[in-house]
Amino acid sequence: MTKQILDPWGSINVKDYNLAMKQFGISDLGNLHKNLPLKHHYFSRGIIFGHKDFNKITESIKNKKPFVMITGLMPSGILHIGHKIVVDTIIHLQKLGAECYITVADIEAYLTRNISREQARKTAIDQYLTNYIALGLKKKKTKFYFQSKGSTEYNNLSKYVAKKTTFNELKSIYGDLTPQKITSAFTQVADILHPQLKENGGPKPVVVPVGLDQLPHINLARDIASRFKELKLIQPSALFNKLLPGLKGGKMSSSDPISHIALTDPPKTVENKIRKYAFSGGKETLKEHREKGGNPDIDISYQWLTYFEESDEKLKKIHDDYKSGKLLTSELKQILIDKLNKFLKNHQKNREKAKKQVSKFLN
Amino acid sequence: MTKQILDPWGSINVKDYNLAMKQFGISDLGNLHKNLPLKHHYFSRGIIFGHKDFNKITESIKNKKPFVMITGLMPSGILHIGHKIVVDTIIHLQKLGAECYITVADIEAYLTRNISREQARKTAIDQYLTNYIALGLKKKKTKFYFQSKGSTEYNNLSKYVAKKTTFNELKSIYGDLTPQKITSAFTQVADILHPQLKENGGPKPVVVPVGLDQLPHINLARDIASRFKELKLIQPSALFNKLLPGLKGGKMSSSDPISHIALTDPPKTVENKIRKYAFSGGKETLKEHREKGGNPDIDISYQWLTYFEESDEKLKKIHDDYKSGKLLTSELKQILIDKLNKFLKNHQKNREKAKKQVSKFLN
User: Fold this and answer.
1) Which of A47, B62, B121, B216 is deepest in the core (most CB within 10 A)?
2) For residues B50 and B33, what is the distance between their CA atoms, to the nearest angstrom?
3) Is it true that domain A257-351 has CATH number 3.20.20.210?
């Protein structure tokens, strides 16, 4: 088995999460989430499928000890429905007691995507922060910061990191290296580790909810944490979620509008996109579908509903009816359209309210 | 001709400065210094032998326009007599009107020499700053700063640098790379370029007085400056001085006490070191020396006097008398001993006064 290299700056399309877990040393979430005081279907349905050291966090929650959730956002383009998974996870962790650090990766955006700081700021606020608030993020215990506005010790940490790794390690983690990638990686490692600096209250458990594509940064941050004897850092934990597949199947992408639903898409657009592009697991003819049933495992509308339909009961009925042929593709699509448009209508209202709260998050 | 790679973190022993100038694209200083309103024998004797774009600085001086001198210090070990050459140059440039930036490379010291920030701070103040003041550095228009205490925009610049270079360029400049070297280099480039940031008054000529070993950083900073179209930076200038040779010949080193005279050495130590170790260009017997004369070109005591004896007339007489055999090695050494001990006695007194001024330079 040749080692697969994950490129956090490239694209990823994971076909087999079980294989990926083995390959990248990610632990199965198992029963770890079962004793949490709040439930979420992302956990129970294996959408959050794996972790590293998440037991440090469940222990903190159990013992009412402080812990941190940190997440980074790349301020490019629009926020789409796929991003919602991480945001929901962030907000769930906040409800579970996490102090939340939200990093705008504007240094990385400049280095790897040539996005100016001004543009990054605008996108981070209009697209990301506003939507995060609309989705339920609370100001209390939340630090929303820009990489380009980090503290002196945060900046120093992003340089000290260089002492705790080697070129060979960086190459084995990231594959091809460029100066931009190295500086971006060191900045991300500083992001993940700096909540444990003295100025932020010292060592404590930290969890990073991420897609698998961000694993390289997690691994590097964990290895470096263990080598920073002088800072007594706790190795950060991670939660890995399955990426929402694109409408047509394959990867969902910000730059490909027909692969996603944007959080600002109007109802008619949502309906058209799903009707026209959502990859179907239904049969070719009505007759064949009624006889043999559809395949929910490959049907994107059904796959999306596993993320967005909170009720296990309803979801099971949809699954069984589709599989038996009772539910047609057009009907399944309508369920998804209704579900999403109901959410989006509500979300648009929340967005308007959220706009008034944005300034509270910015200092 | 294979390209020689200068290692700013290693050692260097330049045998032929003319060859080095050709090889590294350094211009002969020529008459560029002749119209300066203040003279210095380092210029007239070719101790400052070469430059890049120093005409930008002479123009600024001529037109009474602002310009900056920036220099970095590695806060390791003691300050020795070889360091004095750069300090004298700094102070000369200050007298010529430069705004002076003095960088304590404590990030680099940690990354490349494992020196803690606390130790770096102590050394920078006790050894460097105190001696700089004793040698004549004035507070007015001087910014003495630590890399670890740099402003946010300075830190951002040290990261943005990554976008303006490539691995191949870094390899061709520095040879073998390590993450530490890359981060150190980017930090040094930010040091050299940040006096031109908006927060520091915007683009202006900047000169860096250095030994040849620091050329790689100069070249990288100049190339990157020219690529930062958005910042409209002026390519920094540089002055290159010949390194004072070690007492025994070869390289002078902080870590080898018999290669140098420390600025804290007592008179007896100075006398002993020079008598015992200073490489002599004299003949083996008194008789032979009187007949054939000594060789000032290889005699370290004479070489040192070209740096420390300000009077051209006195220096010429010493040269001619030694060459003719009139002046014996022991007499030549005595001239150097007297010269240095007179300077050091005065310097020690100035050091005591300087200690009281140190706090003015620290904020």
Assistant:
1) B216
2) 11
3) no
- The model's pLDDT over B226-272, given as tens digits with 9 standing for 90+, comes to 999 989 999 999 999 998 999 999 889 888 999 999 998 999 999 99
B149 vs chain A: nearest CA distance in angstroms? 6
Residue B353 CA, chain-centre distance (Å), reads: 24
B19-243: CATH architecture: 3-Layer(aba) Sandwich (3.40)
User: Which CATH number is A17-243 given?
Assistant: 3.40.50.620
- Preferred mutation among B104, B113, B116, B163 to probe A, highest tally of A CBs within 10 A: B163
Q: Under DSSP, is residue A98 helix (H, G, I), strand (E, B) or coil?
A: coil
Query: The whole model's pTM is what?
Result: 0.90
Say whether B257-351 and B19-243 share the same fold: no
The string of pLDDT tens digits covering residues A88-147 is: 999 999 999 999 999 999 999 999 999 999 999 999 999 999 999 999 999 999 999 999
Which tokens in the block code for residue B58?
A: 């002479």
Inter-chain contact A179–B163, Cβ cutoff 8 Å? yes
Residues in chain B where the model's pLDDT stays below 70: 1-15
Report pLDDT digits (tens) over A11-33.
555 667 888 788 888 999 989 99
CB distance from A177 to chain B under 8 Å? yes
Residue A251 CA to residue A266 CA, distance in Å, equals 22
Report the C-alpha gap between B43 and A165 in whole angstroms.
44
Q: Is A272 on the interface with B (CB under 8 A)?
A: no
Domain boundaries, chain A: 17-243, 257-351
